[in-house]
Design goal:
Strand 4, helix 4 and strand 5 form a beta-alpha-beta unit. It is globular, with a radius of gyration of 19 Å. Helix 3 crosses helix 4 and helix 7 packs parallel to helix 8. With 356 residues, the chain is an alpha/beta fold. It has one domain: Thiolase/Chalcone synthase (Peroxisomal Thiolase, Chain A, domain 1, 3-Layer(aba) Sandwich). The strands form 4 sheets. Strands 1-7-6-4-5 form a 5-stranded mixed beta sheet, sandwiched between helices. It has a 4-stranded mixed beta sheet with strand order 8-13-12-11, with helices on both faces. A two-stranded antiparallel sheet has the order 2-3. The chain has 11 helices and 13 strands. The chain starts with a strand and ends with a helix. InterPro entries: ACP_syn_III_C (IPR013747), ACP_syn_III_N (IPR013751), FabH (IPR004655), Thiolase-like (IPR016039). Homodimer. It comes from Colwellia chukchiensis.
Length: 356
């Protein structure tokens, strides 16, 4: 049987930080209010496009796997904030990398985008269509954020991560998965003004209103991720005690804590980085996984559980069996261009452009 082993990983976080204190300079909020409700302390604001973030993350993932761009057969790019819809954003990453042999596709499932992309790439490798793939989760949410809305402006940030997958005969990579969607509740989390539905109706691109019913989203997020975890664990014939680490989507610390209690899992097994980056939508779970690998949180030959939830309302859980290697075989010299501005300066420039 063929498996899709994860042999490379990389992330790219833009350098400009936006702290809770920065947000308090233009919103009616403070650090204590944000931290107590979300667990977030700061987030990143990008000075480059989402494809550029993805490119750097991919270059690092390829290097970590000890491969070159010519080895890539497929690029699957999960995001909500693609630079373009036609041509697709994955083709731009292919061009930046010089991955001429790669087929390219985009996946749009909001915060689960990186994980749904992992499912697609894994299936393509296991079916024999391709032998290797890059999986991307990346977002630049800051340009479409409604920075006047405290309910959402404090939650989101920009970032990217990528995984390199390759065919293997060893039981490794995604072992089981569960995907689903609460389509009847899709309107409780939506970005109004982002899409052709709003074309030619007097809106500037990026001038958005966010529908975000926090309490309802909380309930759906916990329920969706819990049932996904239960299904994926049952398919793998594993119980909670056999999971060595949990790397959840980082949307809200309260959601993570409630999910862990519902699954009756040890909190010490849960990787959390929400305080550093906030919710990066499609990038969030993959960035957390990459950091967990880099920090030695993922043990060799262990089972990892990755629950996620996003707009749609999509939900997922993946059980991964990790291999024997958690160190990068090589490093990439690819870097983002310098950013002379602070996160606050970048956000104020976005707000000023929208007010014209």
């Amino acid at each position: 049987m063929t498996y899709a082993a994860i042999t490379g990983w990389g992330k790219c976080l833009p350098p400009a930080k936006l702290s809770n204190d920065d947000l308090a300079t233009f919103l009616d909020t403070d650090d204590q209010w944000i931290t107590s409700r979300t667990g977030m302390k700061e987030r990143r604001i990008s000075h480059v496009s989402v494809s550029e973030l993805a490119y750097v993350a991919c270059a690092r993932a390829i290097a970590a796997a000890g491969k070159t761009a010519k080895d890539v057969d497929l690029i699957v790019f999960g995001s909500t904030t693609f630079d373009e819809l036609c041509p697709n954003a994955a083709s731009n990453v292919q061009r930046l990398l010089g991955a001429d042999n790669a087929a390219c596709m985009d996946v749009s499932t909001a915060c689960t985008g990186g994980m749904y992309s992992l499912s697609v790439a894994t299936a393509m490798i296991k079916s024999g269509v391709v032998k290797s793939a890059l999986v991307i989760g990346a977002e630049t949410i800051s340009p479409i954020m409604d920075w006047t809305n405290r309910d959402v402006a404090v939650l989101f940030g920009d970032g990217a991560a990528a995984l390199y997958l390759e065919a293997s005969t060893e039981e490794t990579g995604v072992i089981t998965q569960a995907l689903g969607c609460y389509g009847e509740s899709r309107d409780i989390l939506s970005v109004e003004g982002w899409g052709l539905k709003y074309a030619n109706k007097g809106r500037m691109l990026g001038q958005s209103n966010w529908a975000f019913l926090g309490q309802e989203i909380f309930k759906k997020a916990v329920a969706g991720m819990a049932q996904a975890c239960e299904k994926a664990l049952a398919q793998a014939q594993l119980d909670a005690e056999q999971i060595s680490s949990v790397v959840p989507h980082q949307a809200n610390l309260r959601i993570i804590d409630t999910l862990v209690k519902r699954l009756k899992m040890d909190k010490d097994k849960v990787f959390v980085n929400i305080h550093k980056y906030g919710n990066m939508s499609a990038a969030t779970t993959l960035v957390a996984l990459v950091e967990a690998i880099e920090e030695g949180f993922i043990a060799k030959q262990s089972y990892v559980l990755l629950p996620a939830f996003g707009g749609g309302l999509t939900w997922s859980a993946h059980v991964i069996k990790w291999g024997d290697r958690s160190h990068a075989l090589s490093t990439s010299e690819v870097q983002l261009p310098d950013c002379p501005d602070t996160g606050l300066a970048l956000v104020k420039a976005i707000m000023a452009a929208k007010s014209v």
